[in-house]
Design a protein that fits this description.
Elements (H helix, E strand, L loop, with lengths): L10 E7 L3 H9 L7 E4 L9 E5 L2 E5 L1 H4 L2 E6 L28 H6 L3
Antiparallel strand pairs: 1-2, 1-5, 2-3, 3-4
């Protein structure tokens, strides 16, 4: 299975990075190395680029480039919420958010 075939919310592990020359080097430099776990976020409204949560950051990658990356599908873990700001709402969990601090939080009674 390739990275381009993953659905939003699916978690996977990179098995192999295909391609040649500068493209392969660029993908490896972005942190897409074998053994790395990632979670697929929601794509752009047009379907391209893809949103990928990997190594504590969000990466946007074209579908064409994502087709060079072979992945294995993993089971979704309960404590992994993905990107709470940019990915789909189904990945969010209430306990992953830290309480707000400041005037607004005090007014709302969250502190």
């Amino acid at each position: 299975m390739t990275l381009a075939e993953l659905l939003p919310g699916q978690q996977a592990e990179i098995v192999e990075v295909k391609g040649e020359g500068a493209l392969r080097r660029r993908l490896l430099d972005m942190g897409l190395t074998p053994g790395t776990q990632l979670i697929m976020g929601t794509p752009a409204p047009s379907g391209d680029p893809l949103c990928i949560r990997i190594r504590s950051y969000v990466l946007s990658l074209r579908k064409e480039d994502a087709s060079f990356i072979e992945v294995d599908l993993l089971q979704m873990t309960s404590n992994f919420c993905g990107d709470c700001k940019g990915c789909s709402h189904s990945l969010q969990q209430r306990d992953c958010h830290k309480p707000r601090r400041g005037r607004r939080a005090r007014r709302r009674g969250k502190l």
